[in-house]
Amino acid sequence: MTDMPDTTLTGDPSHDAPGAHGDDAAGYYVPGSPIADTKSPGGPIDERWQTRKFEARLVNPANRRKLDIIIVGTGLAGGSAAATLGEAGYNVKSFCYQDSPRRAHSIAAQGGINAAKNYKEDGDSVHRLFYDTVKGGDYRSRESNVYRLAEVSTNIIDQCVAQGVPFAREYGGLLDNRSFGGVQVSRTFYARGQTGQQLLIGAYQALERQVAAGTVTQYTRHEMLELIVVDGKARGIIARDLVTGEIETHLADVVVLASGGYGNVFFLSTNAMGSNVTAAWRAHRKGAYMANPCYTQIHPTCIPVTGSHQSKLTLMSESLRNDGRIWVPKKKADCEKDPRDIPEEDRDYYLERIYPSFGNLVPRDIASRAAKNVCDEGRGVGPEVEGVRRGVYLDFSAAIERLGRDGIEEKYDNLFDMYARITGENPYETPMRIYPAVHYVMGGLWVDYDLQSTIPGLFVTGEANFSDHGANRLGASALMQGLADGYFVLPHTIRDYLADGPFEKIEESHPAVVEAKKAVEDRVAHFLGTSGTRSVDSYHRELGNIMWEYCGMERTEDGLKKAIDLIRTLKDDFWRNVKVLGTNDSLNQSLEKAGRVADFMELGELMCIDALNRRESCGGHFRAESQTEDGEALRHDDQFAYVAAWEFATDPDVAEGMGTPVLHKEDLVYTAIEMKQRSYK
Amino acid sequence: MKVTLKIWRQPDSVSPGAMHTYELDGVSEDMSFLEMLDVLNEDLIVKGEDPVAFDSDCREGICGMCGLMINGQAHGPEVTTTCQLHMRSFKDGDEIVIEPWRSDAFPVVKDLVVDRGAFDRIIQAGGFISVNTGSAPEAHSVPVPREDAIRAFNVATCIGCGACVAACPNGSASLFMGAKITHLGELPQGQPERDSRVVGMVAQHDAEGFGGCTNIGECTAACPKEIPLDVISRLNWDLHAALRHGH
Ligand SMILES: Cc1cc2nc3c(=O)[nH]c(=O)nc-3n(C[C@H](O)[C@H](O)[C@H](O)COP(=O)(O)OP(=O)(O)OC[C@H]3O[C@@H](n4cnc5c(N)ncnc54)[C@H](O)[C@@H]3O)c2cc1C
Ligand code: SF4
Ligand code: FES
Asked: Among this protein's residues, is A615 annotated catalytic?
């Protein structure tokens, strides 16, 4: 057991003995004490945030510059926090692994950002956004946090507009909105298909302004490789300068992780190449709980894999499903044919067939799973990769007939161009091919209402935390959460913690600092000293295949157990046989990747254990054992209405190894909303 | 297909570099240019040779991290980023020369990787609107004519890749700067700091060692986001106005 603030845990550790209702994960975990206090204030839900802001202690402006804050990550969550805390006068150090803060993965977000402005007078409100988010998350998120998110969403738009974010506007000069992801109100603000880019540039410019003002120091091409914990509190990080290889110690009064999501555990995903779990995982190993790690969002409309050289996947906007019809050939023998030569009667418009009322517009997870099923049956299309064709047609011919080519061009021209550039095929003439891909992770480090992890002084924001999306995230809500956390939530909650600072000064010679630094140096030395035979990427790819096969769109008890065995074997082999060339004292991209893949291996194992434990289907997590007669996801609120927060345990037999994790449960209680079973029929 | 790659190899910023030749077989036209380099690197690792260092992150043409001189053209033969270039733009037997961005203001870090920190410092010198978090007025309090918003957006799409600098015979970053000046200058929110912004950014640009603009237009031809040349006229116009106003 690690150092936990006493206030967050109560109860007897033996409280929830396994074995109650067919405990699938028995033997894979150790039950721990429940999490009782999330620090969310009581009272009516719409007053809680006001209460917390008022009760959070203030820091005297003269003291702020004596307080050092480390922020890892410069995406929407980290960039906005660094800028805001710099403006407030704290002494901020901001880290990212790219060569500029502006390149964080948030830049790639396309569709838009939600906010409950109700500019369309279509019945939107803070309460409705709250309701939609909890329901969309399949009743697996914490209601106080979600309510606050909806509440501050409106401030985000004001702030971004003032920064010069060029959102789409109507002829009268006011902001335009669209409806997104199947919700019934238009609350999504957007900047063509590049909303993430524009929001991030706004945050980046605010950040650079603080760099110029001297409140923020920027460390680019730096990777956090270890968290420093002194007397139970997060007090700094060990980072590697990716250009010189120097292993640096950075100390502070508080540490914020805004390091993004870990979808790259699947190797192929729509995430940026460098997106990783290392910052979060190192904190997890030092005592921060990891919550709901198995909750992954798989997006149905991505460009399929073309071959074993594939390095990443590209998202095609979901809006395409409004006009495209999805099909595969009825007969396997037709799969190699030119689709235009396959007559109507030989096509299976499977979504329209199975879900006649929703058709091609069924929710993301359902569309994704259905595509996997038809491809597993051998009816996929496109190039064969490792013996299977993984693609389905998204056909616009009917829409082109109906709206004319001009009509389609006007709506989707840039997407069609992007598709043509990547595939070399003209989607105006031949149907597009699409396949689902990993897109986002709802799981992440556990945080309380203050966004503080189970390590005091370690705060976590953005995709790196688990807080707001439950088992499934609604479109356009990740950008909202990142900016809500960074601009409007963290700056208030962190001051309550900092009110006790500045904390006792620590020296670089402190044993905890020395130990953290040595751990990093040892890892680097290990990788460079292993004269193995396999490249880092080859291991990453293999891990990704295991995760995708057994912990992807559909999960089963047997499959997950198999995956855990496979990952353990692969992990052993990786440590013994990985080949990393070059040295530590210059840019070494293989070395960077080796550290990331090592952490992905352990994370992958924990994801499988989490998925194994959760014998229910909810949101993006589909357990084949838990479905209705017609294949719909079936939740079990009586057994699983909780957040699974995992505590790391070291392996007693293997130095630095991963032992049997401890499961702490945070019960989810809804007072402002009633739990219902999701239905799309 | 099979290609011959001539690649600039340089161990670090201080050591001298040189071109090295590699033959690569089995290249598929569906590969992106960077995936082709990934395949080369996997081969090199297996052979025990140091893989080629190059930058990329999103591989979707939006983060601006990638950027190579390919046969003398910034981002290669198509109007797109290096990561969105595909091997179908080449043919069997081609020789492909790959170099890093060449500019005094972008020193080489290793092989094909350069340091573009100068761009951040130009932004620090004024490429922002000063508004502290929480102090913003209601978003609808200031309507922005739709056409202005569209113009601002069109140039705000700059990804900060540096191709404009690499393509310019003078090594000028005027297109990059002009894009930012125009983005913020088109919006009512950007007006109060319009003079100080342009003066600060241009001074930093010159201090970083970027060259002056002589209107050659190579920048806009190489720009993957098709930022138009007239942002530089806008930059000059704003600079003169600021100087007139006594800055
Ligand atoms: C293709 C795509 C489209 C999307 N579209 C939308 C959309 O339309 N709407 C929406 O709401 N959401 C969308 N999302 C999701 C959304 O973009 C992300 O969830 C969100 O941007 C994450 O922001 P973040 O600030 O938490 O992390 P990121 O933006 O991922 O930033 C992570 C930061 O951490 C740094 N970092 C990571 N590890 C380390 C380390 N070890 N050391 C130092 N620094 C480190 C990185 O350098 C980076 O600066 C989309 C996602 C994808 C992939
Ligand atoms: S102006 Fe164009 S070429 Fe120059 S940095 Fe911006 S996107 Fe790149
Ligand atoms: S890698 Fe992001 S633009 Fe090329």
From this structure: no
List CB contacts (< 8 A) between A101 and chain B.
120
Contacts of A10 (CB under 8 A, 6+ apart): A33, A34, A36, A37
B1 touches A at CB < 8 Å = no
Residue ranges of chain A assigned to CATH 3.50.50.60: 42-298+440-498
Q: Is B245 exposed, middle or buried (0-12, 13-18, 19+ CB in 10 A)?
A: exposed
Q: Name the residue with the closest Cα to ligand 2, atom 5.
A: B160
Q: Which residues of A touch B135 (CB under 8 A)?
A: 162
Nearest Cα to Cα of residue B213 among B199, B230, B227:
B230
Q: Between residues 74 and 103 of chain B, which touch chain A (CB distance below 8 Å)?
A: 78, 80, 84, 86, 88
Q: Is B151 in the pocket of ligand 3 (CB under 6 A)?
A: no
Q: Is B61 in the pocket of ligand 3 (CB under 6 A)?
A: yes
- Specify the domain boundaries for CATH 1.20.58.100 within chain A: 511-678
pLDDT confidence band for A364 (50 / 70 / 90): confident
Residue A320 pLDDT? 86
**Across chain A, what does the average pLDDT equal?**
93
Q: Minimal CA–CA distance to B234: which of B210, B209, B213?
A: B213
Of the candidates A103, A140, A364, A614, the residue annotated as catalytic is A364
Assess: ipTM above 0.95: yes
* Fold designation for B116-244: Fumarate Reductase Iron-sulfur Protein; Chain B, domain 2 (1.10.1060)
List chain B residues with CB under 8 Å of A220. Answer: 117, 120
How confident is the model over A554-600, as pLDDT tens digits? 999 999 999 999 999 999 999 999 999 999 999 999 999 999 999 99
What's the gap in Å between the CA of A226 and the closest CA on chain B? 22
pLDDT at A681: 60
Which CATH fold would you assign to the domain A511-678?
Answer: Methane Monooxygenase Hydroxylase; Chain G, domain 1 (1.20.58)
List, for residues A440-451, the tens digit of each pLDDT value: 999 999 999 999
The ranges of chain B with pLDDT < 70 are none
Q: What's residue A192's pLDDT?
A: 87
pLDDT reported for residue A179: 83
Q: Which of A433, A196, A235 lies closest to A324, judged by CA? A: A433
- C-alpha distance from B161 to closest chain A C-alpha (Å): 10
Give the residue whose CA is nearest to atom 38 of ligand 1: A259
Q: What would the pLDDT profile of A1-33 be if each residue is shown by its tens digit?
A: 333 333 333 333 333 333 345 699 999 999 999
Q: Domains of chain B: which residue ranges?
A: 3-102, 116-244
Residue A192 C-alpha, separation from nearest chain B C-alpha, in angstroms: 9
Burial B98-115 (b: 16+ CB within 10 A, else e): bbbbebebbbbbbbbbbb
Size of interface A-B (CB pairs under 8 A): 216
Task: Name the superfamily (CATH) of residues A42-298+440-498.
Answer: FAD/NAD(P)-binding domain (3.50.50.60)
d(CA B64, CA B161) in angstroms, rounded, equals 4
Q: Which CATH class is domain B3-102?
A: alpha beta
Neighbours of A357 (CB within 10 A): 9
Please report which confidence band the pLDDT of residue A680 belongs to, taking 50, 70 and 90 as the band edges. low
The topology under which CATH files domain A299-438 is Flavocytochrome C3; Chain A, domain 1 (3.90.700)
Q: How far is it, in rounded angstroms, from Cα A79 to Cα A73?
A: 7
Does the pTM of the predicted model rise above 0.90? yes
